[in-house]
Write a structure and sequence with these properties.
heterodimer, A: 104 residues, two-stranded antiparallel sheet, 26% helix, globular, B: 614 residues, alpha+beta, Aldehyde Ferredoxin Oxidoreductase,  A, domain 1, Aldehyde Ferredoxin Oxidoreductase Protein, subunit A, domain 3, binds iron/sulfur cluster
């Protein structure tokens, strides 16, 4: 199993409840254990299955596509949706999910 | 006027002759150009021929509202200003919210065209179809807050009885990025429209509240659609709950926060500088615009740090970025103080901070010494030195005279390596306070190819899914960004014809339904796109006629550079810039090599008479 840190910067901490730490209004953080060979998309899909606010805000569980205006950072670098699809997670990786276009 | 939402009258003010007159609007002009930026674009083209410079008395400055202003739609006090602006010497179109757009119509006018130059400083007063040009020499040198206070006192009116917009010392002194400021902190900020007012000796415009002077065709339908529009805006992003600063940290997360003049993208203090922090730590009071239920405008009292007790407007995202990370400042109270200072002096925070950030980098790298800067210690984060420099700029005093020219001209005059450090577009217009090299390539492209001098196609990024176009999935795809920008272009300019605030009218389809309810029209989304594209092409023909070149539609070296660290490290928009531009031009119906509108494009938009101009 690999330990992955997932950060969601979408102001949905209150709805996610105690499974996620919320160090600020915006951020919700959790560590997940994933099997060898799991991709970023598979992790997001699994989370969306367990947490309805993630299905609503991050990933369409039917099409398995990121919702409009959502981007993913892999180890603090923005990556394209194609990489989200294919990237296999390694132990210690960090995934950040955030909106592209908000506010000013 | 038998179309709902219009007074049917435009006021013409000849400042040289000290006289006013009325122009009646005909149905075909209204249907073709709608209002706001549409009226502005057309009138500018008709009345300002090639060879007229921005400061020429024959330049026009056109203030126009739109059919939704004052109609009952929430947050519809917006107006548009169009002129030949001082940063680009090309068309400049900028909007301000507040009350003026509604009050101008309640005073009996859909718009005001100013021409000429007054012999003394003057202001315009309008009420119930009457207009008077009045002496304002006693207001000379006053900041915009003092100006509002003095005019209200002189007129013996209460705060909400009038809406006042005008210029501060920056506009009077021809600072190239001076803004038109009013209603206690709202700005038409872009392309130095305040400097155009200053060049005409026009200090302010006062519009009185008055009664509604136009009809709403279907009030019941308007009520229903307006409610839905509010619900949409409320749920659209963090603005309703946290203000526009609510998105600051998310922008940091994708490498979009401008840090120390684009020299880095690392700013761990972002969570002490965002809207969430401000609204949970500072004292906040609501200050909404005309009939606005989103009410995102607030007044704040700083509760911690060196500026504890300071009262100012809650900074918008652009001000938070400009006076925080961009200048290496990590104190949120200081952001409130500097935002107030820039507004008070009557300047655009975007260009002001590109200029100040560049000066700070030049100081750090010894291009400028303290002596060169009139003794000011312009190290990163020295907010009191920044405040002093802003005041020098507004007065064009000492070295402030050079920096009053804006960062493009100041850097070119300085020469050497410092030219490559300045953030601007080759046309001279300022990007908004982002690092567009991060996940906002759509805005970087838009800022370079715009005809309005500020965003034309995009808005807080881009939201094509709102008009049934595919959303942007990869913000770093040259293909996706240039294609979607072109396909989406039109709806935002249509929106700027209407007299409503974008934060309060986030759904274009519902907004269109409100427009149809007010006017009695049956416009479709396709019609809206056509009208918006007509405005864009009209402005583009004006710009080519006034000397714009394709080569100007590029970022400066620093603006188009590759981020050296942070979330967007290594992303290079310039890698396929020429391809992106050609793709964009082609999809806009413009010649892919020259960027000029093709005859077929103009004819399809009902602008056949402009073909001879290109
Ligand atoms: S959303 Fe904000 S700027 Fe827009 S009308 Fe309302 S208070 Fe004014």
């Amino acid at each position: 199993m690999n330990r992955i840190t997932i950060e969601i910067w979408l102001w949905i901490g209150k709805e996610l409840g105690d499974d996620f730490a919320s160090p600020s209004e915006m951020r919700s953080i959790r560590e997940e254990s994933v099997a060898e060979g799991t991709t970023i998309k598979q992790l997001l899909d699994d989370l969306a299955g367990r947490y309805p606010p993630i299905a609503r805000s991050v990933l369409d569980t039917k099409t398995k596509r990121l919702l409009p205006n959502i981007v993913v950072n892999y180890n603090d670098r923005v990556i394209s949706p194609h990489i989200v699809h294919d990237q296999v997670l390694k132990d210690g990786d960090k995934i950040t999910v955030l909106p592209i276009y908000v506010g000013g | 006027m038998d179309i709902g939402g219009y007074t049917g009258k435009i006021l013409r003010v000849d400042l040289s002759k000290d006289e006013t007159s009325i122009m009646e609007l005909d149905r075909s002009t209204i249907e073709k150009w709608i209002g706001g930026v549409g009226f502005g674009a057309r009138l500018l083209y008709e009345e300002v021929p090639a060879g007229i410079e921005w400061s020429d008395p024959d330049n026009r400055i056109i203030w126009t509202s739109g059919p939704l202003a004052g109609s009952g739609v929430y947050g519809a006090g917006t107006f548009n200003v169009t002129s030949k602006g001082s940063l680009t010497n090309l068309a400049g179109c900028s909007q301000a919210n507040g009350y003026f757009g509604a009050y101008m119509k309640f005073s009996g006018f859909d718009g005001i065209v100013f021409q000429g130059r007054a012999s003394d400083l003057v202001y315009l007063w309008i009420k119930e179809g009457k207009a008077e040009i009045r002496n304002a020499s006693r207001l000379a040198g006053k900041d915009v807050w003092e100006m509002e206070d003095a005019l209200r006192e002189e007129l013996g009116v209460k705060e909400k009885d009038v809406s006042i917009y005008g210029i501060g010392p920056a506009g009077e002194n021809g600072v190239r990025y001076s803004a038109i400021v009013g209603d206690r902190g709202h700005l038409a900020a872009h392309n130095g429209l305040g400097a155009v007012m200053g060049s005409k000796n026009l200090k302010a415009v006062v519009a009185c509240r008055g009664e509604k002077t136009f009809e709403v065709k279907d009030p019941a339908r308007l009520k229903e659609k307006n409610k839905a529009l509010f619900e949409h805006a409320k749920g659209f992003g963090p603005v309703y709950e946290w203000g526009s600063g609510g998105g600051l940290s998310a922008l940091y997360g994708i490498g979009c926060l401008p840090v120390r003049n684009y020299t880095t993208n690392i700013f761990p203090e972002h969570e002490q500088m965002n809207g969430q922090y401000m609204r949970t730590h500072f004292e906040i009071r609501s200050k909404p615009c005309y009939m606005c239920r989103i009410a995102h405008v607030k007044e704040v009292t700083v509760t911690e740090g060196p500026y504890r007790g300071f009262v100012g407007e809650e900074p918008e995202y652009e001000q938070l970025a400009a006076w925080g990370p961009m200048i290496g400042n990590t104190d949120l109270g200081a952001v409130v103080m500097l935002s107030r200072e820039v507004d008070r002096l009557g300047m655009d925070c975007n260009e002001a901070s590109w200029t100040i950030g560049w000066v700070m980098e030049c100081y750090e790298k010894n291009v400028f010494t303290k002596r060169d800067l009139d003794g000011l210690d312009m190290r990163w984060g020295n907010v009191e030195a920044v405040k002093a420099m802003l005041n020098k700029i507004a007065k064009r005093e000492g070295v402030g005279n050079l920096f009053a020219e804006g960062v493009m001209r100041a850097s070119r005059k300085t020469g050497g390596v410092a030219v490559d450090w300045a953030v601007y577009t080759q046309k001279g217009c300022s990007p908004r306070s982002h690092d567009h090299r991060g996940g906002r390539w759509a805005e970087l492209l838009d800022t370079c190819v715009t005809n309005t001098s500020t965003l034309e196609s995009t808005w807080a990024g881009i939201h094509p899914q709102l008009v049934d176009l595919p959303a942007v999935h990869d913000p770093f795809s040259h293909e996706e960004v240039s294609t979607i920008n072109a396909k989406f272009n039109g709806i935002r300019q249509f929106d700027d014809c209407l007299g409503t605030c974008r934060f309060a009218s986030t759904d274009p389809k519902l907004q269109l339904e409100c427009l149809n309810a007010v006017t009695g029209w049956k416009l479709t989304l396709e019609d809206a796109f056509t009208i918006g594209r007509r405005v864009i092409n009209q402005l583009r023909v004006f710009n080519f006629r006034h000397g714009m070149k394709k080569e100007d539609e590029r970022p400066s070296t620093r603006y188009g550079s590759v981020p050296v660290d942070g979330p967007a490290e290594g992303k290079n928009i310039m890698e396929k810039w020429d391809w992106m531009i050609e793709n964009y031009y082609t999809l806009m119906g413009w010649d892919p090599k020259t960027g000029k509108p093709l005859p077929k494009t103009l004819e399809e938009l009902g602008l056949g008479e402009l073909v001879k101009d290109v």
